[in-house]
Amino acid sequence: MKRYERFAEQIAELIRSGVLAPGERVPSVRHASRTYGVSPSTVFQAYYLLEDRGLIGARARSGYFVREHARRPLHEPQIGPRTAQTTDVDVSDLVFSVLGSIKDPHTVPFGSAFPSPHLFPLPRLARSMAQALRGLSPHTVVADMTAGNPDLRRQIALRYMVSGVRLELEELVISNGALEALNLCLQTVTAPGDLVAIEAPAFYATLQVLERLKLKAVEIPVHPREGIDLDTLADSLQRLPIKACWFMSGLQNPLGATMSEEKKRALYELLHRHQVPLIEDDVYAELHYGPTPPKPVKSFDRDGLVMHCGSFSKSLAPGYRVGWVAGGRYAERIQRLKLMTTLSPSVPAQAAIADYLQHGGYDRHLRRLRYALEDQQGSMLASAARHFPEGTRVTRPTGGYFLWFEFPAQVDSLQLFQLALAQGISLAPGPIFSATRRFQNCARLNHGYPWDEQSERAMEILGRILATF
Amino acid sequence: MKRYERFAEQIAELIRSGVLAPGERVPSVRHASRTYGVSPSTVFQAYYLLEDRGLIGARARSGYFVREHARRPLHEPQIGPRTAQTTDVDVSDLVFSVLGSIKDPHTVPFGSAFPSPHLFPLPRLARSMAQALRGLSPHTVVADMTAGNPDLRRQIALRYMVSGVRLELEELVISNGALEALNLCLQTVTAPGDLVAIEAPAFYATLQVLERLKLKAVEIPVHPREGIDLDTLADSLQRLPIKACWFMSGLQNPLGATMSEEKKRALYELLHRHQVPLIEDDVYAELHYGPTPPKPVKSFDRDGLVMHCGSFSKSLAPGYRVGWVAGGRYAERIQRLKLMTTLSPSVPAQAAIADYLQHGGYDRHLRRLRYALEDQQGSMLASAARHFPEGTRVTRPTGGYFLWFEFPAQVDSLQLFQLALAQGISLAPGPIFSATRRFQNCARLNHGYPWDEQSERAMEILGRILATF
């Protein structure tokens, strides 16, 4: 990271933490240069960058100011009751009916699970694909099916190393996206009827997978900023024969919470005491806005208890369907299960991503992607403050492309979903994130698409619908 | 098909059926031209083609003769006891230890499950991939994940139509190879503990999948030429609460049996009476040596009882991992299950194959592939006749790249496997094809690789090991 980028990050941090409030003047170039001991040109470059990211704006003859979107007029959602709920899962039909209804490409995609595909370097990936296919021997095409592309495996292991996780190469199982990895992990450590601790709210696919495998959910409440409630979890582990935990320790979907390192370590120690394996779903790992990637729980893993699942679908190559799991002590069983179900992810897709990771400029792309997502988050937050009713609460994650809104208690988000859809706007209603159909007055909105007039109008329409409840 | 190809096919049929015996002289050009009412140049072209396919050879000044490999010195294997066996399945460890041991690229790959990757048009596919990626809009990359590539779906439906199967486009679910399709089908129509009728011998992955899903196998004997024993099946359906059948009606793995059309119809009517769904595993459909593709059982399906699974892995694009199922009345449930487990096969791989099917010359490639496989089959048969002990029996499938050998009763094929592997030769021992570990004196050998001196030497070594039992 260059000096001006580092300096820009310092200022961004001040804005994020609220030290520099919306509308406030950013230190002048001369002042900043003196205070922080950097050259004026470094300050200039940093301010340009921050302007580019939508965090500050220039006013004629007055210097730079923190932009409105960086303020936080809406409060954080409240954490639910701090008790674990155990339940059968039966939410799939609801999820499919919601997902099925948002396919129309003319719908404003606030309900989508993916960021805009225009944010990804698809032409560059296509070149990597061509390059990779030229280098792929016919023998490799068959051989790579069982073991996975060796270059890809090395590249992934390398990224773990850089972010402070030591990994045995043998631990890595390449999968058809993270979703397959998560399925395989869960099947490896559970049998039908078993209890699995999940988050509340949880990613809806988690609920669907539990339902499919006839597993029972123990819902552990999640704090919108600090993540899983460890006390409730500890209590549940004490009382119940929980066979596995499926948690997102970073940028939790849908809340966006990221647990602190300290808390992650405590979570690991708790699970270690009970010898309950953790399936760590970390598919948004690369989408942190800050400069340093948060360490996963996996980084504290001493004895292979954590299965850490990642993917390129949200950060590089949607549709390529390449994910992985660092499977710890379960890796071989996971690998065998994969050989019996899908055999292998597409070999060309693996090879293309391996080539891109080596030559494509992944980190440069990621920086641009993060800037865009943070900028769009600001726009959606500002727009919500303008249009949504009094009493609306919202998260403000430090990464990713989801906001979680808690509307006033009388709002029925399934109804909201239907009314909005009739106006050509999709959203993800709260109840699809819960095995017990909670979060009725909540919704997840996607800001992964470039913000434009249509987005602004859509927020206005949502605001008007919300006012009718 | 051109006139000379049609004529060549007539002669090939005479050789296959034994009307023209090995060593026998093929009709002279003049004679053939007169008898069959075709021009001499057509006969010439046909004979060149047959020579190319290794079916006939020219002798100086004496014309063409049927080559030795086309004779059949070894008898057909005997069909097992005509009784169904019901059993738990526990064969996975054995299968993995066999598969794991044949990874070394220097091993003679008689144990491989794939034909030589050199037989596939990989460079042409790479061009289709480049073309497809240029045409792929970012929106499509995300949209195609749920529904599958629409061009690919149309092309697959078209091939069904050409081979006489009418299909609703909605029935088609694109999957990560046929293996995923088969898994999804089975999960859709069964629950743990259910009975599933399978073949004996059966493809070992079938056994692994049953084991994984905790299903019980009812093994129905397969005749090496005529396929599944319908009487035993009828009896089993009468007596037992069988929930599904998983059969290969064409080029059954490992025997290579292809049921007659009449028998397929009878099978369908039988299942229809009992309303038991059929999972029809038809991954070798394109590898028939004869000119006309055999119709699948699916072609008789009146009410969506048959789930017909296919793949490009064995005929075009190994490693791309693109298969499908025409799921009949179960299609929607299969599709939902897929959305919950792997979401989608790789979008670029789908697009590349769609482009190839439209512009790449699939039928031309298939013709060449079939010729090569038939030629290699002849070579392996001839070599077995030279080297394997008295009393060895062998199948002679009308397609594909597997031969099933039944050795004298005292041969232990697991031991044979170990001894051969020590000499750098792999093979697939009989017991991995049975839930009850039968077929101890049998083995499946792959002739999907170009026949060369190394192959010949390997057969000789196998023969010497066999003689020691």
Quaternary arrangement of the chains shown? homodimer
How many β-strand runs of chain A? Answer: 15
Give the helix tally of chain A. Answer: 16
Our estimate of the beta-strand percent of chain A is 5-15%
The CATH class designation of the largest domain in chain A is Alpha Beta
CATH architecture of the largest domain in chain A: 3-Layer(aba) Sandwich
Q: How would you sum up the major sheet of chain A? A: 9 strands, mixed
- Structural class from helices and strands of chain A? alpha/beta
Number of self-contained structural domains of chain A: 3
* Mean pLDDT metric of chain A: 90
Radius of gyration of chain A: 22 Å
Low-pLDDT stretches of chain A are none
Largest interface: A-B, 56 and 55 residues
C-alpha geometry of chain A: globular
CATH homologous superfamily caption of the largest domain in chain A: Type I PLP-dependent aspartate aminotransferase-like (Major domain)
